[in-house]
Amino acid sequence: MSREVLRLENVNKYKGKAHIIKDLSFSVNAGEVFGFLGPNGAGKTSTIRMIVGLNKVSSGSIYINGHDIKKDFKKVIKEVGAIVENPELYPFLSGYDNLVHFAKMNDNVSKERIDEVVALVGLTDAIHMKVRQYSLGMRQRLGIAVSILHRPSVLILDEPTNGLDPAGIKEIRHYIRNLAEKEGVAVIVSSHLLGEIEMMCDRICVIKDGQLVTIQDVNDATSVEQYQFILKATPLDKAQQLLIQLDYVEHTSIVDDALHIKLPEVKVPEMIHALSQAQIAMYAFYREKVNLEARFFEMIGGDSNA
Ligand SMILES: Nc1ncnc2c1ncn2[C@@H]1O[C@H](COP(=O)(O)OP(=O)(O)OP(=O)(O)O)[C@@H](O)[C@H]1O
Ligand SMILES: [Mg+2]
Fold first, then answer.
1. Domain spans of the chain?
2. From the CA of 42, how far away is ligand 1's center (Å)?
3. Beta-bridge mates of residue 255
4. Residue 43 near ligand 1, beta carbon < 6 Å
5. Domain 4-222 has CATH 3.30.360.10
6. Is residue 205 within 6 Å of ligand 1 at its C-beta?
7. Residue 42 CA: which ligand 1 atom is closest?
8. pLDDT above 80 (res 222)
9. Percent of the chain scored above 90 by pLDDT?
10. Is the pLDDT of residue 291 over 70?
11. What is the DSSP string of 32-53?
12. How far is the CA of 263 from the centre of ligand 2 (A)?
């Protein structure tokens, strides 16, 4: 049903001796907003630079609409629009004149197309203002307009909400979704902040230390949320030591006065039995949904309270 636009296959990148991208594979479909999430230094920008041809792939392949970027670079790169780091705009020109300027660098960008992209990013009222008078959010949106002039099938935005206030972030989010829906473009948005990416993406790919951690469907509750069990008991450290030794217990952590435990539900009676055999006094035991944010921090090994 959905058409695959971008595919990475076992992509590796070395910088000197450092292995910064490790066997990364994923694919992105037309019309979807794909979140590329990871902590600072995870390898988001490095991956994006390879996709847009700013850096070479050390090994593995990247395909855009089925064409290997190593073999058909000139042809394939026309299918890509991107903002890596900051959009390059001329502050002394109006938004409109910036678009006219960049339109000249592409074939077949009509005046109608310029008006269309202006409307798509919500800049109709401000398009004749000088860019130096633009807010950061407006500049970011103009940057997006420039990058889609040539109707790319993939749009890549590296941390598009960096530095924006909550209102600016909300606007960008709206326009990014709008683009994916109206133009059918596959949008890849990188971020180190889960909260904002969760709200605009269809799927989220988490990377850490250059490696894929997981790809999750945001709207699929079963993949995003998972259950954990909460135990209130004393002595809590003794309970944890016991549980760590049980092979069916996948994870334990002490949070405040409770033990958070991951295990298959069918094993719960067995675990309770083991705890009572060890004379651990149990006061409460219940099941709780783990949200994406908590799972994200679990996956990247950070601290959600940081
Ligand atoms: N030129 C280089 N030489 C050696 N290592 C590099 C070089 N450029 C990047 N790296 C390393 O590659 C890793 C990934 O960096 P990258 O900039 O891709 O991460 P990122 O996910 O974009 O992080 P951020 O959220 O901070 O933008 C980091 O550990 C970084 O130190
Ligand atoms: Mg980066």
1. 4-222, 226-290
2. 7
3. 258
4. yes
5. no
6. no
7. 21
8. no
9. 69
10. no
11. -EEEEE--TTSSHHHHHHHHTT
12. 35
